[in-house]
Amino acid sequence: MLFDNLSINTISSRFDELANELIKSERMRESVDPERSPSALRETMFRLIDILQLVDQPKENESDNTLSEDELNELGDYGINLLMDFSALATELELNKESREFEDLALPLALWLGRHLGHIKTLEPIVNALARLANTYQDNAELEQLYEVVQELLNTVSPELKTRKKQESTSEPWRILLINQAIIATRSHRPGLIERAYEILVEYIPDEAPAFFKEGMSQMDALNYPQQVREVVEKYYNLWSSPRTLH
Questions:
Q1: Residue 246 above 50 pLDDT?
Q2: Does residue 125 sit in the same domain as residue 234?
Q3: pLDDT tens, 37-68?
Q4: pLDDT for position 26
Q5: Quick one: CA dihedral 60, 61, 65, 69, positive or negative?
């Protein structure tokens, strides 16, 4: 299972390795803004990690919550934005690999938050990390596991993001997440997953469904998809290719 046994400690360990690379690189260059230096940002992240680690600690009672839901949501979103700051700083220092890896850490952090009943509002680095991960997978079983990861993320997204209008730019990563889940499901060749993903897509972004299914049909021959996948895609294409009217 992907991202099994996630803890703040495992995320923190990889973060520390990456942060040290930034600090080494910064020392060989002209000093940046002291408040945005890798050392200062690392200390800020470590203070946040110290708080989040309390959530992972065993509790005597199920009701013994260290943080409220609102506090966990706020701190989690702060952590994701800190990772974006590190990613941007790594890019400034021409550490492109580390920049991507900082952004990639937003994905396990978001999953950890969801498993502790938190919600996320900042989706852009998570969507980017997921897309990179999906591009490395070809095996159907791996793609099926990745689909379940995306489903976890969908359940973790803040409800207010799911209901924002299309013209609001902040909602765009949410829409991309839905489309990516549908693509991952299609690539898995699992008809049941494909149906589930398509139903979610048409529920939240029906205006984009016709174009998505039209593109899907064009890919069936181009990429030689098996018949059971073609049948599902064709079903949804036929349902959504004509203008829908109210009766």
A1: no
A2: yes
A3: 889 899 999 999 999 999 988 665 555 557 89
A4: 77
A5: positive
- What is the residue range of 38's domain? 1-55+68-120
Q: How far is CA 239 from CA 199, 212, 235, 242, 244, in A?
A: 12, 12, 6, 7, 9
The verdict on 79 and 158 lying in the same domain is no
| Tally of domains within the chain | 2
Dihedrals phi, psi of 157, to nearest 5 degrees: -65, 135
pLDDT score at 171: 56
* Domain identity same for 136 and 95: no
Residue 69's nearest CA partner among 7, 120, 107 is 120
88 token code pair: 């941007």
DSSP state of 120: B
Give the residue carrying structure tokens 């829409």: 175
Backbone angles phi, psi at 120, to 5 degrees: -120, 145
Q: Identify the residue whose tokens are 């919550």.
A: 65
Per-residue pLDDT at 165: 57
